[in-house]
Amino acid sequence: PTAVVDKDVIREIFAQISNRSSKQSNFLFNVFDAFSIPRFEFDADCRKILPVSRSSKVVSDVDKATQALRHRFQLVAQRIGRCRQLQSIKFSTIEALLSSSHRQSDVVVVGMLTQQKACSYHLRFNHCFHIEDLTGSVQVKFDENTKFQLGIFTEGCVAIFQGSYEASLLDVREVASIPIESAVDTRSTFGNVNWFGGDDAVAFRCNVKLCVAERSNPNAQIILISDVHLDDFNVMKALYHMLSGFSNDPPLAFIFCGNFCSKPRQRDTMDILHKGFQ
């Protein structure tokens, strides 16, 4: 023990390594509400994913939306340091670009694509977009020569932008997605902490009972169905036929998702839901 690390910290770390403190669930299928799911955020200083002690709220404060975007950007951007394909690339921050007074012919920036102002007819469409990182925002230009990696790039996505910078404008030559990372690589960095929820202290993929059940039941299924309109006769009829078809070989679970009414704000909505789920 030292002035920084005491005996309790050492015991907790040892328990996590040996998995002696984990309480593995006795159930193969666990259901828990969204408010019981633990929340985590990436700490850039410690380079770890740490739990958030604050409780969740149905209606959050105004600044929570900005914090959520910043946390999402950090989670995506932190993978770059572990990506072998990007080790030789020198990335610039938007703050560094804005502080430069001369043209830079080849810059690479990781940013979130945003649209900060509405387009008007006298403005070119490609002048309406910006990219943002944790240091600032810069206007970007796309044209017919811009190359996009295969994929879908939407407003709010975090991507890699390469191009030339001059006079507060980034002329983008190429846009690429940040390479994905396997669960094995992520867990090798952050450990087997359970981020999803439930009683287990470690991730469900490390639960021996669940792993054995998965290997012994390769044909197990979970059926997810959305837009289950309980007030629609055709939907209820099709639902009955589907459940009858699975009667001889039922899946592990059926998960029904809304909307559960075809028309919103009906006077008898609660009665429809009550009768439909009977």
UniProtKB/TrEMBL annotation:
GO BP terms in the entry: DNA-templated DNA replication; error-prone translesion synthesis
Q: Which GO terms describe its cellular component?
A: epsilon DNA polymerase complex
Alphabetical list of InterPro entries matching this protein? POLE2
Q: GO MF annotations for this entry?
A: DNA binding
Instruction: Report the protein name in the record.
Output: DNA polymerase II subunit 2
What does the record give as the organism's lineage? Eukaryota, Metazoa, Ecdysozoa, Nematoda, Chromadorea
